Amino acid sequence: MNQSDVINYLKSHLDETDVTLYEGATDQQIAELENSAGVKLPNDVKQFYKFSNGFISDEYQFRIVPLNELLSHDRGQNILYIGEYLCYCDTWALIINPENNCYQINYPDERGFVLTNSFSEFLSRFFIGGVFEQNGLYDWREDKIKRN
């Protein structure tokens, strides 16, 4: 799935999910985050945030963190904690290389462990299996660890 597929899935299946979308981010909100973080958000991440400035799910209160919360935290090192559940009990980090705008999504307790280089893949994993279900975020992480 690419980001357009994820967005179209949400548009057509939102009532089948436990997700509450936030209103899309403005270009100004995106520019403020980019200036504050010292990086440019990758196009697929921007595309999603313009569609929805994050969301919350009933499953363990998993969220894609809205930009205004990313702006209120001094993350440093080009790290934006973009996904979280249970009030930051656990987080997923978007790490952006400012030189080439490439990025990776990591599970932060293992800084060198890359889950993906695709925000749409990360979101798709959540929509497939949530946080803890088969093929969800934790299952995906464990599978990747076994393969390495």
Comma- or semicolon-separated keywords:
single chain; 148 residues; alpha+beta; seven-stranded antiparallel beta sheet
Q: What is the element layout, followed by pairings?
A:
Blueprint: H1 3-13, E1 19-21, H2 27-37, H3 43-51, E2 55-57, E3 63-64, H4 67-71, E4 79-85, E5 90-96, E6 103-106, E7 114-116, H5 119-129, H6 137-147
Antiparallel strand pairs: 1-2, 2-3, 3-4, 4-5, 5-6, 6-7
Summarize, please.
With 148 residues, this protein is of the alpha+beta class. The protein is built from 6 helices and 7 strands, in the order H-E-H-H-E-E-H-E-E-E-E-H-H. A 7-stranded antiparallel beta sheet has the order 1-2-3-4-5-6-7.
Largest sheet: 7 strands, antiparallel
Alpha-carbon distance between the termini? 24 Å
Strand content is 15-25%
The radius of gyration is 14 Å
Extended strand count = 7
Total helical segments: 6
What does the overall shape look like? globular
Structural class assignment = alpha+beta
For the residues shown, what is the average pLDDT? 86
Task: Give me the side-by-side strand order of the main sheet.
Answer: 1-2-3-4-5-6-7
